[in-house]
């Protein structure tokens, strides 16, 4: 991400600059701008992201973006969140496809190819996680959003008779394991992700045993 300064960069606008954007028309315009910036992020990743680049992608000016967003970091966070929302929707569509086993292990198995694929915005999402790990003081929200978005559906995949605590524990375990496998897959040997695939297979066996235990 480019740390330009002042208006060109997207540091927060001067006090009083950002006016109310709460009207339906303004909200629709904000959503339109965010979608355009998100599409650019999906194509080109986070490297050299700035308010200037975002404005060009959205066909507008940095001042218009500052009317709707609190600077480049706010815009980046929302764009990453939207990218993740798209990926989550694709993952859940696969997980809950009736053509797959309607068990926790079956659903996790079904969503894995979506998470490991090279679909829309994957590079940007990988870079966002890297930023959060590299500078958590500044970019922790880029990773926290992932947990907030993935954990509820993972809990919903658990057997309904399980207690809330058990669902929470298993969802946290699955999320942490999948994130670890993804990081290994993105940063590991170019010869293949043998260790990650073995770990994923072990995770599925563990989930099958957990479900069989009732």
* Number of β-strand runs: 0
Distance between the termini: 47 Å
Share of helical residues: over 70%
Q: Unreliable stretches, pLDDT < 50, 5 or more residues?
A: 3-17
Shape call: elongated
Would you tell me the overall average pLDDT? 82
Strand content: under 5%
The total count of helices amounts to 10
Written overview of the protein:
- The chain is mainly α and 214 residues long.
- The chain has two domains: 68 residues, no CATH class; 130 residues.
- It contains ten helices and no strands.
- Helix 4 packs across helix 6 and helix 8 crosses helix 9.
- The longest helix has 24 residues.
- The radius of gyration is 20 Å and the shape is elongated.
- The N terminus is likely disordered.
List keywords for this structure.
disordered N terminus, Homeodomain-like_sf, elongated, DNA-binding, 10 helices, single chain, 2 domains, 70% helix, TetR/AcrR family transcriptional regulator, mainly alpha, HTH_TetR, 214 residues
Lay out the secondary structure.
Layout: H1 24-44, H2 51-58, H3 62-68, H4 72-95, H5 104-116, H6 122-134, H7 136-139, H8 141-157, H9 164-187, H10 194-212
Helix pairs in contact: 1-2, 1-4, 4-5, 4-6, 4-8, 5-9, 5-10, 8-9, 9-10
Give a concise summary:
The protein has 214 residues and is mainly alpha-helical. 70% of the residues lie in helices and 0% in strands.
């Amino acid at each position: 991400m480019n740390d330009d300064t002042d208006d060109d960069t997207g540091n927060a606008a001067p006090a009083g600059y950002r006016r109310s954007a709460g009207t339906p028309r303004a909200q629709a315009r904000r959503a339109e701008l965010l979608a355009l910036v998100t599409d650019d992020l999906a194509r080109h990743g986070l490297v050299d992201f700035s308010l200037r680049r975002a404005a060009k992608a959205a066909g507008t000016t940095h001042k218009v973006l500052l009317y709707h967003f609190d600077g480049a970091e706010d815009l980046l966070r929302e764009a990453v969140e939207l990218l993740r929302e798209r990926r989550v929707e694709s993952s859940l569509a696969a997980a809950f496809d009736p053509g797959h086993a309607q068990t926790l292990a079956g659903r996790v198995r079904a969503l894995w190819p979506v998470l490991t694929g090279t679909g829309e915005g994957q590079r940007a999402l990988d870079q966002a996680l890297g930023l959060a790990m590299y500078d958590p003081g500044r970019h922790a929200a880029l990773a926290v959003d992932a947990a907030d978005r993935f954990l509820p559906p993972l809990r919903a995949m658990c057997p309904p008779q399980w207690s809330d605590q058990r669902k929470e524990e298993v969802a946290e375990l699955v999320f942490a394991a999948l994130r670890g496998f993804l990081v290994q897959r993105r940063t590991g040997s170019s010869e293949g992700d043998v260790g990650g695939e073995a770990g994923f297979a072990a995770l599925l066996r563990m989930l099958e045993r957990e479900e069989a235990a009732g």
